[in-house]
């Protein structure tokens, strides 16, 4: 099985009033190559049951239930499960527009074109970012020199350069 382009990590604690809108917005993305990791951080309300329904209904959703350790602990647990080329986070009381991931792809593509002068308009945005592609080589060069770009709430993840164990939330 191929790794998804995006891993979306959602830490959730007692979110039964907001998690449905959050998950509905995430699964409605126009870019479809993603996984969703919901980390139920010891909720005592109906969050777990709601998330179990979404996990059973949508193959892209994975649910991790853990004892309460706080939002940083939940994000770190999600990072341990993430297999996407790019990682992002959404809080369980937030929601995103349907073109959220596509807007990121477009912004990244524009940024790389600006930084490198590379323009190739006949590629699909998803192909543009896949490991081994032309742009991946540019980003690999940046990571080889120690540059790790933060674009919005997205983190570039190149497994051979940045191991999950080196990226942890402390607060």
Task: Compose a concise summary of this entry.
The protein has 171 residues and is an alpha/beta fold. It contains six helices and six strands; from the N terminus they run E-H-E-H-E-H-E-H-H-H-E-E.
Task: Tell me the β content.
Answer: 15-25%
Poorly predicted runs: 120-166
* Residue-averaged pLDDT: 75
Structural class: alpha/beta
Write the layout of secondary structure elements.
Blueprint: E1 6-12, H1 19-27, E2 34-41, H2 47-57, E3 61-66, H3 71-81, E4 86-89, H4 100-116, H5 125-129, H6 134-144, E5 150-151, E6 154-156
How would you sum up this structure, described in words?
The chain is of the alpha/beta class and 171 residues long. It has a single domain, classed as Spore Coat Polysaccharide Biosynthesis Protein SpsA, Chain A (Alpha-Beta Complex). Helix content is 37%, strand content 18%. It has 6 helices and 6 strands. It has helices at residues 19-27, 47-57, 71-81, 100-116, 125-129, 134-144, and strands at residues 6-12, 34-41, 61-66, 86-89, 150-151, 154-156. It is globular.
């Amino acid at each position: 099985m191929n790794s998804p382009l995006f891993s979306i990590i959602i830490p959730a604690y007692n979110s039964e009033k907001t998690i449905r809108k959050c998950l509905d917005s995430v699964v409605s993305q126009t870019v479809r190559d993603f996984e969703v990791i919901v980390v139920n951080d010891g909720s005592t309300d109906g969050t777990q049951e709601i998330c179990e329904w979404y996990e059973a209904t949508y193959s892209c959703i994975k649910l991790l239930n853990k004892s309460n350790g706080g939002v940083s602990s939940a994000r770190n647990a999600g990072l341990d499960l993430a297999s996407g080329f790019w990682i992002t986070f959404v809080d369980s009381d937030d929601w995103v527009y349907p073109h959220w991931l596509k807007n990121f792809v477009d912004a990244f593509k524009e940024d790389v074109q600006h930084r490198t002068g590379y323009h190739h308009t006949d590629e699909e945005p998803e192909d543009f970012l896949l490991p081994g592609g032309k742009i991946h080589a540019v980003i690999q060069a940046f990571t080889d020199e120690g540059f790790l770009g933060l674009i919005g709430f997205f983190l570039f993840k190149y497994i051979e350069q940045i191991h999950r164990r080196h990226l942890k939330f402390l607060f």
